[in-house]
């Protein structure tokens, strides 16, 4: 029987992916975990355990207790928070991945999912249609941890046959949760300001284009790669996936169509430099060829959906 452990389940991605996996496999097949014990209240019908992923023995004990067969290892420190505490970012992002991969090898787990990021690229990578394989010189601790993590995933697949799969997500945008310390967070925050009719101060310059993805596309991509036949997965580091690319002034204009009194100003901070080191658009040909990836949401479709859902939430 499939039994899935999710780490970092209380985060922006985990809080949505946990429900999606519970719908797909059944609630009894999921164990949600997070270092934040309040995260359990997000999943009242799903078993929840408090788990600090840097504690290898706790990870092992929970895996044994629930006879886990798959791990979705989402817990991480994101780019902006990572620059404020590099040692913590390295410990959480790197040590925990090695524990999960070693556990998968020892216990012969069926599958592992681990997200990477466009942060593996750096200022020397091509900015447009960044290829699957190209120069990678990341300039954040977060990016370095994701780049090294990708190589560890590939290593454990090649040397030990661990069936680990991974996606390089762009900035993720969803209405169900708030983002957790990334450089792309503005693209979620801006919608929350628009629906509550508050002006927005953006921490990036208005013309800073970044690759982004609406959460329903990200959840579908995750489930698709994990359900793909093993022989369709030709990349064992991490797949480029792409959906849309825009700058703050473009997302602002798409919101303005629906919220004509909304206003924005720009006060770039340390995250500007991080954003300028990342690609502007991503080539995801390999994911399309291998397991049929195709995004559905463009900017205007996402804006309509985000605003409608946030407004519904606001008005109960
Ligand atoms: P998030 O910051 O919203 O959530 C991370 C979760 O991990 C939080 O609930 C936090 O409590 C938990 N956590 C932190 N330290 C922990 C520890 N020591 N032990 C256990 N749990 C701990 O992040 P997210 O946006 O949900 O990202 C999930 C994954 O997706 C990460 O690996 C991230 O790198 C990747 N990713 C996210 C994005 C994005 O735009 N959100 C883009 C690319 C990749
Ligand atoms: C971040 O900004 O750190 C994340 C990411 C793109 O990995 N959203």
From TrEMBL:
Enzyme Commission numbers on file: 1.1.1.103
InterPro entries the record matches: Epimerase_deHydtase, NAD(P)-bd_dom_sf, NAD(P)_epim/dehydratase
Pfam assignment, any one: Epimerase
Keyword Oxidoreductase: yes
Domain of life: Bacteria
Keywords assigned by UniProt, alphabetized: Oxidoreductase
First and last residue of the signal peptide: none
Stretches assigned to the NAD-dependent epimerase/dehydratase domain: 4-233
Family that this chain belongs to: Belongs to the NAD(P)-dependent epimerase/dehydratase family.
Entry-linked PANTHER family: L-THREONINE 3-DEHYDROGENASE, L-THREONINE 3-DEHYDROGENASE, MITOCHONDRIAL
Protein name: L-threonine 3-dehydrogenase
């Amino acid at each position: 029987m499939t039994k899935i452990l999710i780490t970092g389940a209380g985060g922006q991605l985990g809080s949505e992916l946990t429900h999606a996996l519970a719908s797909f496999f059944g609630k009894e097949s999921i164990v949600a975990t997070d270092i934040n014990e309040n995260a359990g209240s997000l999943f009242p019908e799903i078993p929840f355990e408090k788990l600090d992923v840097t504690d290898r023995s706790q990870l092992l004990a929970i895996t044994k207790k629930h006879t886990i067969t798959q791990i979705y290892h989402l817990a991480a420190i994101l780019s902006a928070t990572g620059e404020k505490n590099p040692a913590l970012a390295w410990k959480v992002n790197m040590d925990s991945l090695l524990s999960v991969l070693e556990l998968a090898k020892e216990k012969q787990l069926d599958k592992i999912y681990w997200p990477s990021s466009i942060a593996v690229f750096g200022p020397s990578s091509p900015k447009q249609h960044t290829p699957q394989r190209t120069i990678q010189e990341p300039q954040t601790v977060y990016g370095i941890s994701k780049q090294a993590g990708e190589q560890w995933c590939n290593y454990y697949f090649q040397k030990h046959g661990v069936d680990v799969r991974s996606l390089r997500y762009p900035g993720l945008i969803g209405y169900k949760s708030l983002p957790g310390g990334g450089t792309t967070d503005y693209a979620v925050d801006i919608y929350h300001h628009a629906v509550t009719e508050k002006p927005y101060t953006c921490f990036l310059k208005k013309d800073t284009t970044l690759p982004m993805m609406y959460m329903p596309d990200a959840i579908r991509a995750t489930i698709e790669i994990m359900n793909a036949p093993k022989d369709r997965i030709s990349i064992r580091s991490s797949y480029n996936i792409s959906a849309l690319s825009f700058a703050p002034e473009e997302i602002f204009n798409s919101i303005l169509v629906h919220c004509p009194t909304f206003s924005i100003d720009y006060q770039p901070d340390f995250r500007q430099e991080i954003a300028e080191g990342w690609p502007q658009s991503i080539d995801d040909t390999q994911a399309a060829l291998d397991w049929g990836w195709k995004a559905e949401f463009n900017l205007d479709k996402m804006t309509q959906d985000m605003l409608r859902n946030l407004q519904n939430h606001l008005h109960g």
